[in-house]
Specification:
Elements lengths: L2 H9 L8 H10 L6 E5 L6 E6 L4 E4 L3 H28 L3 H4 L4 H10 L5 H8 L3 H19 L5 H6 L15 H5 L3 H15 L1 H7 L25 H7 L11 E6 L10 E6 L1 E2 L7 E7 L2 E7 L8 E3 L3 E7 L5 E9 L2 E7 L2 E4 L1 E10 L5 E11 L2 E7 L4 E7 L12 H4 L5 H8 L7 E7 L4 E6 L14 E2 L17 E3 L5 E4 L21 H10 L7 H8 L5 H10 L7 H12 L10 H17 L8 H8 L1 H9 L3 H4 L3 H22 L9 H4 L1 E4 L9 H6 L1 E5 L20 E2 L2 E6 L7 E4 L16 H6 L3 E2 L4 H7 E9 L2
Parallel strand pairs: 1-29, 3-7, 11-20
Antiparallel strand pairs: 2-3, 2-29, 4-5, 4-22, 5-26, 6-25, 7-8, 8-9, 10-18, 11-12, 11-17, 12-13, 14-15, 15-16, 16-17, 18-19, 19-21, 23-24, 26-27, 27-28
Length: about 775
């Protein structure tokens, strides 16, 4: 899962079962009861939990309190170890089980903790959020108590027990900051300006839309470097997310474009390949509630899905929700910072962080947390008398990620949907929408700061002059309903309408996935769910097609280079499992990036700059060679780079072995769901890990299968759904690897093969259909 957890597990290896068979036996012995009856203190009335053949719980309760109590109980049955880790990461208690290595991460999580008016915080999500959170966490606690010593095997090996939850534990800000990371881009820009100069940085890191950014007058960029992000990186490395990428696709069509005559919607949020999965599917049914879809197991409600009247999906917008302020501190008292012409004391919190020692004892470490009027101090530059402060929307009421879905999930029409989005702050999401009244729509929903004096692209002085003036209202956010073309789609690309006057973001994703979706939606007149499934698994790469075009100019006497150049020249850009051209492309692209960006930045910065700059910038330079990019003879230098990078790529392929000439993309590009316990002993890799599965596509195809340096998929759509509003029982989904995080459960890995093959399962919605697919029936009864 992560290095931090891996270190913990290695320390615990001495307590691990001696053989994999023993492990499997112990794991199965503590599986949750999913049939029969359980008497549970805290319930008011009986609750039915019907698990279908794919492990999805359909929860039927007679009141809201029991519904969310049961959701917490059921989530804990399937994901208790994951829930405990996520709670600890969110509240800053990882060091208690990991040790001193987790202290900095815990400190950062505590810096982000909401510290304002709790009544305003709870009411910001929906009027009954506190009651829902109380019921949900009570359900988790009830299962912990019910399980007793029969805890998941991970707790046995690690030698600790999960803590009880408090309602406010679901208000953590860590998942929100991961998806609101613009301040880290500010640091990179400032660092490059200081290293390379302003004009070179503008060349390498252009914005979208284009803007000639510049440092604030008088701001010294010296000392603004990656050290500022140390706490953030320490906190996020313990989460199996990859903060650098938050990519997804969604689209919606009007009834006039569907075979059924009703609106259709598709969504596939992309996140890290993880075990257990980030997503947990559930169906919630009680008076006032009937919603199904996916959410995060540690949160009540459904984040993405549908109810009886509306359906929705989302992608990340890229809204700039963070700023880095540079506060001047008093040389005579570093706990004072300048406001106007006055010095003001920082607010200081001193907290005890339980920290596990090498001998197993837990002692308190002291975390000193400082705050200015802009937010938490994340780094101090004592040499220059400066403090770097994070201002972000998560500091305000309503900044917990996804919790406003409690309002969205109950909306019954377009008006109520828009009203619910007034509560939506984090993460910043492109919602696509459809309803039973045949409306379709899209809204870029987020708490969107207004910056009248700066653009948010670089750190700014904290001494006044660069303050936010408020937030855009929902009516002022980019949106569209019932467009003439009959469809709407987003893929993290620049979604700003022509002439849009507000500055909300400058760091959109490349448009390649969107362009493929757009081409698919414009290719025919009437669509079906089968079409939508194919679109979600489209593995054609526009960058691949561009490189294939450049291959036409390559000529070699060496047959190894010649043959592969001709393979590339004829390639259609499809990264199918059986493609050898895809293998060439995947080796050639990074070599080309190294060669181009290596002309401009030090070697240690090439990968970061290339990733931030993006492929559109690189291809624009290749297609329009000039002296700024390639020197005095730009075309010849461009051609040399193309040629030599291709030769290096082919040489790398041939060095991999005698079968290199025949290697296919699927053999090289695979996905494995890795359990954290694989770090205990190599034997558990085979027992606990799920996969490998051969994959298609890459990070620029609608079937997003972004990979690491070894071509192993690390990111993609672990959840998808496609909906036709003509029939809720025909909604289809994929998820991976399974609903349960407990090895030995039939639902630990059962969804992974379907996901790998692009096969979907139905999300049964009507009680009749749910009964047809039910495989396990559990009744939760009040203990009294």
């Amino acid at each position: 899962m992560c290095k931090t957890i891996g270190a913990l597990l290695i320390l615990a290896a001495a307590t691990a079962p001696a053989h994999a068979q023993d492990f499997a036996r112990q794991a199965k012995a503590v599986l949750a009861q999913i049939d029969g009856t359980i008497n549970v203190p805290g319930l008011k009335q009986p609750v039915e939990v019907l698990r279908d053949q794919w492990g999805i719980p359909h929860i039927y309760a007679k009141n809201s309190d029991d519904l969310f109590f049961a959701q917490g109980f059921v989530a804990a049955q399937d994901r208790l170890f994951q829930l405990d880790l996520w709670r600890r990461i969110g509240v800053g208690e990882m060091a208690e089980v990991v040790g001193p290595d987790a202290f900095q991460g815990d400190r950062f999580a505590r810096l982000l903790r909401y510290r304002g008016d709790m009544d305003a915080e709870w009411k910001s999500y929906s009027p009954d959020t506190k009651a829902i959170a109380t019921a949900f966490t009570s359900g988790i606690n009830a299962y912990i108590k019910h399980a007793g010593k029969r805890l998941p095997i991970e707790f046995q090996i690690l030698g600790y027990k999960p803590k009880q939850w408090r309602p406010e534990d679901i208000l953590g800000r860590m998942s929100g900051i991961i998806m609101s990371r613009n301040f880290s881009d500010e640091v990179m820009r400032a660092y490059l300006i200081n290293k390379l100069g302003l004009e070179k940085t503008r060349l390498l890191l252009p914005t979208d839309p284009q803007r000639d950014f510049a440092p604030a007058p008088g701001l010294d960029l010296a000392g603004i470097d990656p050290r500022i992000l140390a706490g953030y990186k320490a906190a996020t490395k313990a989460v199996h997310f990859r903060p650098s990428k938050t990519e997804s696709n969604n689209w919606v069509i009007a009834g006039k474009l569907s075979a059924s005559g009703r609106p259709m919607l598709a969504s596939d949020p992309h996140r890290a390949i993880a075990l257990p999965s980030l997503r947990y599917l559930v169906h919630l049914n009680a008076p006032g509630w009937n919603v199904i879809g996916a959410g995060e197991p540690a949160l009540p409600g459904v984040a993405i899905g549908h109810n009886e009247r509306i359906a929705w999906g989302f992608t990340i917008v890229g809204t700039d929700q963070t700023d880095l302020y540079v506060e001047e501190t008093n040389p005579a008292d570093p706990d004072e910072y300048k406001v106007g012409v006055q010095w003001k004391k920082m607010l200081k919190h001193v907290e005890r962080v339980p920290t596990k020692q090498a001998n197993g004892m837990v002692i308190d470490s002291i975390a000193t947390l400082d705050f200015t009027r802009h937010g938490p101090v994340i780094f101090r530059d004592a040499k220059r008398n400066r403090a770097f402060v994070l201002k972000w929307v998560g500091s305000d009421p309503g900044g917990a990620a996804y919790l406003p879905s409690l309002a969205v999930g109950r909306a019954q029409n377009q008006k109520e949907f828009l009203k619910a989005l007034e509560r939506w702050k984090i993460p910043n999401l492109n919602f696509v929408y459809a309803d039973k009244d045949d409306n379709i729509g899209w809204v870029a929903a987020a708490a969107t700061p207004m910056r009248p004096k700066h653009d948010g692209l670089l750190p700014v002085p904290g001494n006044g002059g660069y303050e936010w003036s408020g937030f855009l209202e929902v009516k002022d956010l980019p949106q569209s309903f019932n467009p003439k073309q009959g469809w709407l789609a987003t893929a993290n690309h620049n979604i700003l309408p022509k002439g849009y006057r507000h500055q909300i973001a400058y760091d959109f994703a490349a448009p390649y996935r969107y362009l493929r979706v757009k081409a698919s939606l414009e290719a025919k007149a009437k669509f079906t769910l089968d079409d939508f499934q194919k679109f979600q698994h489209d593995d054609v790469s526009i960058p691949g097609q561009k490189l294939a075009g450049f291959a036409k100019s390559l000529g070699f006497n060496n047959p190894a280079y010649h043959d592969r150049a001709r393979i590339m020249e004829k390639w259609d850009g499809r990264l199918s499992r059986g493609s050898h051209a895809a293998v060439i492309y995947a080796h050639w692209l990074p070599e080309l990036q190294k060669a181009i960006y290596g002309r401009h930045v030090p070697k240690d910065l090439v990968n970061d700059v290339a990733a931030k700059s993006g492929l559109p910038t690189m291809f624009h330079a290749l297609e329009n060679p000039d002296e700024k990019w390639f020197g005095k003879n730009p075309k010849s230098e461009r051609n040399r780079i193309i040629l030599e990078s291709f030769m290096i790529a082919v040489s790398r392929i041939l060095k991999s072995g005698p079968e290199a000439a025949k290697v296919q993309w699927g053999a090289l590009h695979t996905a494995t769901f890795r359990h954290p316990l694989e770090s205990v002993h190599p034997r558990y890799k085979k027992t606990l890990n799920i996969g490998p599965y051969q994959r298609t596509g890459d990070g620029n195809t609608p079937n997003n299968t972004r990979y690491d340096a070894q071509f192993q998929q690390i990111h993609g759509a672990t959840y998808r759904h496609v909906l036709d509003l003509a029939d809720w029982d025909k909604v289809l989904a994929t998820s991976a690897p399974g609903q349960s995080g407990q090895f030995g459960s039939p639902h630990y890995a059962d969804l992974a093969p379907l996901w790998a093959e692009g096969r979907y399962f139905p999300l049964a919605f009507s009680r009749k259909k749910v009964e047809e697919v039910t495989r396990n029936r559990l009744t939760l009864r009040p203990a009294n």
